[in-house]
Amino acid sequence: MFLSQVLLTLRWAIRDRLMLAVLAVALLLLLLVPAFSLFSMRQVQELGITLGLSATSLVLLVLVLLLGASSIWRDVERRYTASVLTLPLSRTAYVLGKFVGIGLFLFICTLVLGLVVALVVKLTALQYPSELPIAWGNIAAAIIGDFCKSILLLAVALLFSSLSTSFFLPFFATLAIYFAGSASQDVMEYLVQPDLVQISPLLQTLAKGLYYIVPNLAGFNLKIHAIYALALPVQGLGLTLAYFVSYTAVMLFLTVWIFNRRQLP
Amino acid sequence: MSRVGILSLLLLAHVLAMIPFTQHLRERPAVIKLGYLPSAKVMKLAAPEFSPLLAQLAVTRVLIYYGSLFQQNPALIQRPPEVFNMFKTIERAVQLDPYNMDAYYFAQATFTWEIGRAKDVNQLLKHGIKYRVWDWQLPYYVGFNAAYFLQDYATAATYMKQAAEISGYPFFSRLAARYLSDAGQTDIAIAYLEAMIKEAKDETIRELYLQRLEPLLEARRIEPLVERFRKEHGRLPIDIAELVQAKLLEHAPNDYLGREFVITQQGRVVLKRNPLPMEKIDNQ
Fold first, then answer.
1. Long-range contact list for A205-211, CB < 8 A, 24+ apart?
2. What are phi and psi of A222, to 5 degrees?
3. What is the rounded distance in angstroms from the CA atom of residue B186 to the CA atom of residue A42?
């Protein structure tokens, strides 16, 4: 039953024609990036990688927001859960099936976009070769980092979706968490400066507390490493992976817990 | 009225509105065209994973703005409007992405020669050297600026040595040795410009360098005549006109912007510079 739930969710995402939108973006990337890269004076290849990776990040973020924010609450409101949960499918399996199904869809999209980015990078590099080599491993790591970040945000979106009765709370709350999570590391580094005097200790404590609660997305951003072929921080990647697994697991646990306690119509 | 008729009327109305609208956009003041870029800190906080993209967009916007000015009137390179805003935009771009080579390259190409901000450009380039540790071009630019514009030969030699170490080209080591003295500055500048012209991909930047090369070639032609005058008269000529009077030159040349050549106390022939005062740029 769990597998059926996964496949059902995957089909739902595909039926929403989101894959078509992703393919349209991929086609646009193929057509526009090699042309736009020529705007650069000295780093055509680097600009090609920048545009490709930025577009991948943006598409994955939009997909997470749309799919994650409109999943569980919609099923509840449309009474879909009322019928599906009468089958031998636990609420836990339902939530996890949703998560894996959307995650699988995001994986397929990442794969499609990743292949297009690789093609686009090769094309731009052929136009005006850079002094830097194309660090394919780093580009792959940056795309995997984006994928992991999307999965983590998906877990956050499902958490909000499990306690919401409309689209707006999960959508805007996930978006806010994305912005806060992207900036939290910089804010923390600003707060720990020794010469910082103008911020009250209470506010500092509050910000530090939020830093540990909000997902820290800085570690997933490997774009600079991919664009300029910089050495990847191997130990840091391991720690980021561990952080990703633990945070996602906590979010999923909370989602399942809330959904199990929710009164369904 | 038929649907086609209504659609035709609407399209006509749209075209009539579009023509003055696009005209209005083209004629916007430069400050609005270049726009205002928020602080790099704010942009980094708002969209850290898009920092390299935002940096590149900022550089491209400045390049397009500068290119359009240069195409309209090449004389504007001496005193382009919005110099301060352009430099600030480039500065913010390197704060967003300290690896962005386009930003350093553009700063080096535009803010040094006529605008006379070699010191500020070198600050920017030194920031880039900390990040682009594999790149010999940034120390090469710093070395050139230090020697040619700032007459700081010790700094020039240091950075040329760094460029030599990174690139492995002995050419930079030889330059480092030459930068320890004031000798052959015109030849060094010509070699620098010829190399930049060869590498330039952007047409505006290439044109810019070509126009700078022309007066230097002229200076190289005149410098031996200055030396000949010195040997014949036991002193340097006061100005170019004295070379013409001595029948060593047919006429006093000017560069493409009508600027005159002058003779320095070391016997070098250089363009008479009218640098934009710093405070004037800063107050823009």
1. A210/A180, A210/A184, A211/A184, A211/A185, A211/A187
2. -115, 25
3. 26
**Pair A162, A263: CB distance under 8 Å:** no
> Which chain A residues touch B99 with a CB distance below 8 Å?
224, 227-228
ipTM: 0.76
CB of A221 within 8 Å of any CB in chain B?
A: yes
Residues of A in contact with B100 (CB under 8 A): 43
Residues A125 and A48: beta-carbon distance below 8 Å: yes
The CA distance from A215 to A254, in Å, is 15
Residue of B nearest to A177 (CA): B46
Q: Record the tokens describing residue B48, joined without a space.
A: 């850290």
φ/ψ of residue A186, rounded to 5: -65, -40
How many folded domains does chain A comprise? 1
Nearest to B108 by CA among B199, B177, B31, B26: B199
| Range(s) of the domain holding residue A184 | 2-261
Nearest to B56 among A47, A217, A228 (CB): A47
A36-93 residue pLDDT tens: 888 888 888 999 999 999 999 999 999 999 999 888 888 888 888 888 888 888 899 9
Backbone angles phi, psi at B79, to 5 degrees: -145, 65
